[in-house]
């Protein structure tokens, strides 16, 4: 039973991953990527990582919904009514990708993988939480700061007229250089 | 099921993502390729945890790091796409070749 579920999810993940670069609309691209992520979340559950599988499924569903909005905003062909082909260097990219897969597959099949050391704990989620709140606290703190820096960086990059557009490089300047004055006393 | 099958799937997802990241012109489609590559990393890390060292949390931690990397990649990628679209009105990587000499 588990083997059948594995094959179904594995083929679904790979096929929908492949469809990401085949379909004609960026909305469908996002849906195809979401299906691939959901299949991978399912595979994590098959591996016994129910908590991480659920995290991947929930997070990727939300992420792809947000992505869908941006994809439609930035796409040239929202309806997918015409052919969408935006490639460069297609042949070289294909040969690099196939070569990478062949190299990885050769390594995977040639390496004698070690035997399983130990047994899975009763609750893998407890094992993960204990590690993140204990010996791996540095990982947790680093990831937290990386996410904080990402939030600040993303807002700074995406802002239309930021501090340096309005006030210039001089940090002592008091009044902004706005096209229209705003606030009290306009 | 075996670790080899899981790793072959991970390699396939990584290779498909690599093809997309290298061949696509649109900045957002390049991001899709990068996400697919990280998807492969998640499968490989989960398989390592289950088949090699289930008693240690390291495999699960790699999955957490990969998920965070995906979130960071998407947020920063769309912020960069927004910034370059505001500045130049472009969405294609081929139009942003300032560093190419």
What can you tell me about this protein's structure?
The complex is a heterodimer of chains A (186) and B (101). Chain A has helices at 2-19, 26-46, 50-74, 90-110, 124-132, 137-158, 163-167. With 186 residues, chain A is mainly α. Among the domains of chain A are: 1-76, no CATH class; 131-160. In chain A, helix 1 packs antiparallel against helix 2 and helix 2 packs antiparallel against helix 3. Chain B is mostly helical. Chain B is built from three helices and no strands. Chain B has helices spanning 3-23, 27-51, 58-88. The longest helix of chain B has 31 residues, at 58-88. Chain B is elongated, with a radius of gyration of 17 Å. Chains A and B meet through helix 1, helix 2, helix 3, helix 4 and helix 5 of A and helix 1, helix 2 and helix 3 of B.
Summarize the structure.
The complex is a heterodimer of chains A (186) and B (101). Chain A is an all-alpha fold. Chain A contains 7 helices and no strands.
Largest interface: A-B, 81 and 68 residues
Shape assignment of chain A: extended
Low-confidence stretches of chain A: none
Number of strands of chain B: 0
Low-confidence stretches of chain B: none
Q: Tell me what portion of residues of chain A adopts beta-strand conformation.
A: under 5%
What is the name of the CATH class of chain B? Mainly Alpha
In sequence order, what are the helices and strands of chain B, one letter per element?
HHH
Mean of residue pLDDT values of chain B: 89
Helical amount among residues of chain B, as a percent range? Answer: over 70%
How is the main sheet of chain B built? none
Global mean pLDDT of chain A = 87
Helical/strand content category of chain B:
mainly alpha
Q: What separation lies between the terminal Cα atoms of chain A?
A: 72 Å
Radius of gyration of chain A: 24 Å
Structural class computed from helices and strand pairing of chain A: mainly alpha
Distance between the termini of chain B: 50 Å
- What is the correct CATH architecture of chain B? Orthogonal Bundle
Number of strands of chain A: 0
Main sheet attributes: strand count, strand direction, barrel closure of chain A:
none
């Amino acid at each position: 039973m588990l083997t059948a579920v594995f094959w179904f999810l594995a083929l679904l993940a790979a096929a929908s991953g492949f469809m990401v670069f085949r379909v004609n609309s960026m909305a469908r691209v996002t849906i195809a990527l979401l299906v691939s992520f959901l299949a991978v979340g399912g595979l994590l559950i098959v591996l016994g990582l129910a908590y991480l599988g659920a995290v991947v499924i929930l997070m990727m569903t939300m992420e792809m919904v947000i992505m869908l909005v941006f994809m439609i905003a930035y796409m040239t062909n929202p309806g997918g009514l015409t052919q969408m082909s935006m490639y460069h260097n297609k042949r070289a990219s294909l040969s690099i990708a196939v070569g990478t897969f062949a190299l990885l597959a050769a390594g995977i099949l040639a390496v004698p993988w070690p035997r399983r050391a130990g047994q899975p704990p009763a609750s893998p989620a407890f094992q993960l939480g204990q590690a993140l709140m204990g010996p791996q606290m540095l990982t947790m703190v680093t990831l937290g700061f990386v996410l904080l820096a990402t939030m600040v960086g993303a807002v700074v990059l995406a802002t239309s007229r930021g501090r340096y557009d309005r006030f210039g490089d001089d940090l002592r300047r008091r009044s902004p250089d706005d096209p229209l004055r705003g606030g009290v006393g306009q | 099921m075996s670790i080899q099958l899981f790793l072959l799937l991970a390699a396939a997802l990584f290779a498909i993502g690599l093809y997309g990241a290298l061949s696509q012109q649109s900045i957002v489609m390049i991001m899709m390729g990068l996400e697919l590559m990280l998807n492969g990393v998640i499968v490989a890390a989960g398989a390592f945890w289950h088949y090699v060292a289930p008693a240690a949390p390291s495999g699960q931690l790699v999955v957490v790091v990969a998920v965070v990397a995906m979130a960071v990649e998407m947020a920063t990628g769309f912020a960069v796409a927004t910034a370059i679209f505001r500045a130049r009105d472009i969405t294609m990587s081929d139009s942003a070749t300032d560093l190419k000499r």
